[in-house]
Amino acid sequence: MDEKRYPIPAGLHRVEQDIQRSRFITTAAPAPTVEDAKAFIARVRGEFPDANHNCWAYVVGPPGSTAQVGMSDDGEPHGTAGRPMLTALLHGGVGDVAVVVTRFFGGTLLGKGGLVRAYTGCVQQALESLPTTERVRKVRLSVELEYASIDGVRRLLPDYEATVVSEEYGATVGYRFELPVTRVGAFRTALTDLTQGQVLLGEVESEG
Asked: Of 97, 112, 134, which residue sits at a domain end?
């Protein structure tokens, strides 16, 4: 898995199902940071304060990454909700994702095995229909060049998914571009070729 580009949720996504008379509502959302994940979980809990359980799990980072994860059974028997949900997320092929499974108890006990299957299945169902977009880790590159090269450089930008962050006009033109980290090497080469070496390339800065 390329840690610089990977699928993430495109937005809030919700699915529902009834399992032996219990109603399960699964809500998934983008979670680029742990703070975002916790804020989303709090929002869903606030939306369903009368639910029997609001179990949750999140994975911040590339798909399958365990560096920043969290989970909670929220009152279900230990290990029957949060852990199976997290396992489903880690195998779901999506990164930067948080999910809450809200349960309204319908009167039929599912047993530990039944709960594990239910919570696993809820997350899998949500992921199967989850609209995704691509997270692209971007960096910034400062560039100084002659006025004669401006038009040529601007024509290059779409090919390298580069955008102009700032520009300064003096004896030469100074730009700061933002582009995917995977495109930096090729973009540097293209700039050097276009300007026949008449370009000053700064250090690559991390986004933000």
From this structure: 134
